[in-house]
Specification:
Length: about 70
């Protein structure tokens, strides 16, 4: 798994999860629960399989996250 994105915004996390679920791309938001409980500055990191990283970056760019 490689990191392709990080955010502290729970709205971003929800949108990205929905899109990746719809695309059938496996992912993990490392630190997601911590970022929701702690003050700003604590990030959730989006991890995806290395062979899907370029595809996910393209999707995130199309959505305006990158």
């Amino acid at each position: 798994m490689v990191e392709v994105f990080s955010t502290y915004n729970p709205g971003d996390i929800a949108v990205i999860k929905s899109i990746l679920d719809g695309e059938g791309i496996p992912y993990l938001f490392a630190g997601e629960n911590v970022s929701l409980l702690l003050a700003a500055g604590s990030y959730a990191r989006l991890l995806v399989p290395e062979d899907q990283a370029a595809r996910v970056r393209d999707i995130l760019q199309e959505l305006g996250f990158l």
